[in-house]
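haha ok so turns out i had the wrong file open the whole time. this is the CORRECT one, sorry everyone. sequence first:
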Amino acid sequence: MNQDIGFYVNGKGNIWRSTDGGQHWQNVLKQPGTYFRSIGMIDAQHGYAGNIGTGYYPGVTDSTPLYETDDGGDHWHAVTNIPGEPMKGVCGIDILHPDNASHNSSATVIHAAGRVSGPARLLSSLDGGKTWTNTDMTPWIAMIVDVKFFDARNGVIYGGSDTDLSKSHAVIITTHDGGAHWTRAYESKRPAELIWKGAFPTRHVGYATIQSYDTDPKSIQRRVAKTTDGGKTWKELPLVDDKEVTEFGVGFANADLGWVGTTKGGFETRDGGKHWEHVEMGRVTNKIRVLPDGEHFTAYAIGSDIYKYTSEDLPVVPSTTATVKVDKP
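then structure:
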């Protein structure tokens, strides 16, 4: 949310809140049977949390896809003003303030998308959640894991080409008319892949993690997708040759400095993905949040643990960085 206030969700139905930059966390909701996959806050009081829904993970009994708070996370209620066919679940939430200076909540653009394994649907609000549209995305993509909009008309969705993971290719689609039409900007050539998370440190430069479940013992290379033209075209970059690596979250402080979270720890690049080095940032980091603050930034890596990265300068140089591990609640 900001340098002090942050939220964290997990698959055990918990929502946690910190008001001191991640040093301490308070459990504001414990709801067994719900599998929270995403959270997005409009401001310190108003926000949304996405639930993956039933039929994917064992033990999930909650079919409500989207929850809302208007009191800073103290209470959460189901979003009930969504028209159309019920959504199975939400994996990604994107909050966009067209007017960053005022953070006018009534003009906030919200997108909630899902889900992994399908079916693919996109919830959209251009007025801070007062009204919603509910779009069937199956003509363009089979499953959705993440979503990013740059303004009300231009956006990117990440996911897979088939609800059967063994047949799925990693897919990225883009829109330039607010979601009325979509174009497939990238599709991997290999089976058992999907895009897990995306990050745009600038309007033109973006990265996405390509998650692979290929059982072929020769398929050891893990890759990251990169765009330098705002998502129109993408190319694949090698991350590491290791079959045991499964990619999850991705986050960048600028066009060159960024991180990928995996099952075997984190990987860092300082040259736009040309080279990657293993770094300690916890296991299975599923979400990386980078918060700019003038010439500096703070980043949070959330997975099996929560790691906090602070910078003295942007871009960062080795002599001016510090990494602090924050124990997960």
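The chain is about 0% helix and 45% strand.
again sry for the mixup
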